[in-house]
Amino acid sequence: MLKMQNISKVYQTDSVQTHALRDFSLEVKEGEFIAVTGPSGSGKTTFLNMAGILEPFTSGHYSLDGIDVGGLSDNQRADLRNQKIGFIFQGFNLIPDLSLFENVEVPLRYRGVPAKERKKRIEECLEQVGLASRAKHLPQQLSGGQQQRVAIARALAGKPRFLLADEPTGNLDTLMARQVMELLEEINRNGATIVMVTHDPELARRAPRNIQVVDGQLADFTLYQGVPEASQPVVDTRIKAEV
Ligand SMILES: Nc1ncnc2c1ncn2[C@@H]1O[C@H](COP(=O)(O)OP(=O)(O)O)[C@@H](O)[C@H]1O
Ligand SMILES: [Mg+2]
Q: Which ligand is the nearest neighbour of the Cα of 50?
C-alpha cells in the first residue's frame, strides 16, 4: 500500500540545513498496524508528514496504492490525501467553540459532502467512538481521552484506509491511553492500515509490527509480534503450538 524508497527530507532555515529523513525506505502492507518509536528529533513526525502527503519530500520515491506521489501537482496531492488518509495528533486539535458534531463535520464540509450524508457519517463515527450521546457537547466538557476519541471520529468520518497517528496517547493517562489503543485496534480490525508514533513501550508492544527511527533513518530493528523479522516463521509455529 505504501512504499517509500530512499526518501530524504531536508529542512532549510536561514543558515541551517536539517536532514530530518535520510534514505528512508519502508514498505507498509494493507491492513498492517505499525508502531513507530525512536528518540525525540529523530524524524518520526517528518516521516508521518511525508507518508500523509502533508509536505513534499526532497528526494526519493514514494508510492501510495501504486500512485507515484512525487509526480503529483499540489491539487492532486490534496485529493489523494483527502481520499485515503486520516490524521490523529497528540494535542487532539479540536476547535474549542464547536460542538463535537461540528468538529467531526469540519473536514466533511471541506470535502463538499452533502448535509444528509454528513449527518449520517458523523453520527456513525461518534457512535463508533462511544460518544454519540455527547454530540452537542463542547470539547472542554470532555476528558482528554474523550477528546482524543472525538479526534479519531473526525479522522474516521473521511473513511480513510490509512490512519496516521502522531503520539495519540501522549497527553493521556495510562487508562485513557489503553482505551484509545483499543479503539485503534478495532479500527484496524475493520480494515484500516495504521501507523502510530508512540513513546509508550506498552502500546508499542501491542502493535503487531514495531519499527524504530534513529537519525532520520529506519533502524535495523523490526519486530513482528515482539520478535525479530528473521525468526518470524519459527515463532509463528511456536505461537500456534502454545494455543
Ligand atoms: N518545519 C521544520 N523546519 C526545520 N526543521 C524541522 C522542521 N520540522 C522538523 N525539523 C527538524 O527535523 C528533525 C526531525 O524532527 P521531527 O520529525 O519532528 O522528529 P520527532 O518527531 O522524531 O521528534 C529535528 O531536528 C527537527 O528539529
Ligand atoms: Mg514528533
A: 1
Residue 219 is predicted with a pLDDT of 87
In the chain, how many domains are there?
Answer: 1
Locate 194 and state its grid cell.
495504521
Per DSSP, helices labelled H in 33-114 are 44-51, 74-84, 100-110
What range does the domain containing 79 cover? 2-94+159-231
CATH label of the domain that carries residue 44: 3.40.50.300
Between the CA of 49 and the centroid of ligand 1 the distance, in Å, is 11
37 lines ligand 1 (CB under 6 A): no
Q: Ligand 1 pocket, 167 CB below 6 A? A: no
CB contact at 8 A, 108 and 122: yes
Does residue 45 sit within a domain?
A: yes
- pLDDT, mean of each 10-residue run, the chain (243 residues): 96 93 96 96 96 96 96 94 92 95 93 94 94 96 94 92 95 90 93 96 93 91 66 44 43
Residue 20 CB–ligand 1 contact under 6 Å: yes
